[in-house]
Amino acid sequence: MAITQTSDLHRRRAGRNLGVALCLASFIAVVFGLTVAKIRQGAEMEAFDHVARPSITVPEGGQ
Amino acid sequence: MSDLTTNQTVAVEGDAQFGDYVSLLKPRVMSLVVFTALVGLIVAPGAVDPMIGFASILFIALGAGASGSLNMWYDADIDAVMRRTRARAVPDGRVSPGEALSLGLGLAALSVAMLALAAGWLAAGLLAFTIFFYAVIYTMWLKRVTPQNIVIGGAAGAFPPLIGWVVATGQIGVEAVLMFALIFMWTPPHFWALALFMKADYHEAKIPMLTVTHGRPETRRQIALYSLVLVPVAFGLVLTPIAGPAYLATACVFNAAFLWGALHIWRRDDVVAIADNYRVEKSFFRLSLVYMFAHFAALLADAALGLGGGFPWQ
Questions:
Q1: Chain B CB contacts of A6 below 8 Å
Q2: Is A45 in the B-facing interface, judged by CB distances under 8 Å?
Q3: What is d(CA A46, CA B121) in angstroms, rounded to the nearest whole number?
């Protein structure tokens, strides 16, 4: 015979844990969406590895 | 063979439910913040990426929630005294003051940092200032020392449309300042009307509301005076390109009603008010809520229908 004890305490904690989990999942989704939106805008972005960096490139004939 | 299930009910003090933490963020205030910030963002010139707009509004709302939590942490002693607030999570013992403080500080840092990433440092700086203004200037300082608490503290609630505008444009415009001024001038009559019929609460909590320090007839006079000043501020927006016929019509109707209600309050005294259970004061308070919603909804309608800026003087 399995004995399952569900107390008010467990229920409250389960609700709280679920709430925190949903908040974290939503935050991840928002950060992901924000990243995608920023990359789409792209105008002010500049990579750092193995690519030309316009901001530090000396123009031809310039100093 | 069968399962045996028992249900044990143990009340554990301080073991809060998720909803208790949400209540620390003052969801009703947050909804007004979301609405006004959204209007500020939508009526501003220029297009905003929907995801960036959504995230910005979310972080502005979280920042407002953070200041609400800090307010609940600091004001737990007076919240426990006032009938209107004694069931809140901290004075009721469901959430400890330390948890409210941690939640407030954590959300404040998170919301400001995320808004900076989403919309830039000007918007984030304004949000940080708003949280500081509400939690420190208003809650910790003004609220307990001066009857001007509501007047100056009202600035904290007036920032969201301005921040929304900055999210969209990257700068502060005259239209944004007028939206700020509209909420700023509206706050005192709104809260003083509440103070008139929540007489015992503020008195017992020893908060120097105008009703306690200068008396109720003076509060009635001040409601009328601030309402008089509010009217030109509301119509000032008509001079800017974000207002159209919907806003003009709304401003005409609601400012007339607001002024009429304020003058009605001024003409009454407490003998009459007690006799009808503060009927006029309560209806003025309800009207003030609709007033604010209607003005911003009208701006939204003008923007959605492309009617803003159609007047010859704009």
A1: 5-8
A2: no
A3: 19
- Nearest residue, CB atoms, B52 vs list A5, A20, A37: A37
Q: pLDDT confidence of A62, banded at 50, 70, 90?
A: low
Residue B75 has pLDDT above 50, yes or no: yes
Q: Mean per-residue pLDDT for B34-40?
A: 96
Q: Which residues of B lie inside 8 Å of A (Cβ-Cβ)?
A: 1-12, 15-18, 21-22, 49, 51-52, 54-55, 58, 114, 117-118
Q: Which helix (H) or strand (E) holds B174?
A: helix B174-197
Do the Cβ atoms of B9 and A34 come within 8 Å? Answer: no
The whole-number average pLDDT for the span B288-305 is 96
Q: Is residue B84 a contact partner of residue B72, using CB atoms and an 8 Å limit?
A: no
Q: Would you call A14 an interface residue with chain B, using a CB distance cutoff of 8 Å?
A: no
Residue B11: predicted pLDDT: 45
In whole angstroms, what is the distance from residue B96 CA to residue B91 CA? 9
Closest CA–CA distance from residue A61 to any residue of chain B (Å) = 36
Which among B226, B153, B152, B178 has a CA at the least distance from the CA of B39?
B178
Of A25-34, B34-43, B199-208, B245-254, the range with the lowest mean pLDDT is: B199-208
Give dist(CA B11, CA A53) in Å, integer. 62
| Distance between CA atoms of residues B211 and B202, nearest Å | 9
Contact between residue A35 and residue B38 where contact means Cβ atoms under 8 Å apart: no
pLDDT of A44:
59
A:B CB pairs within 8 Å: 69
Contacts of B302 by beta carbon, 8 Å cutoff, 6+ apart: B43, B242, B243, B244, B245, B246, B247, B308
Residues of A in contact with B118 (CB under 8 A): 34
Q: What predicted TM-score, i.e. pTM, was given to this entire model?
A: 0.85
Burial profile B151-162: b = 16 or more Cβ within 10 angstroms, e = fewer: bbbbbbbbbbbb
Q: Is A28 on the interface with B (CB under 8 A)?
A: no
**Least confident residue range of B83-92, B126-135, B288-297:** B83-92
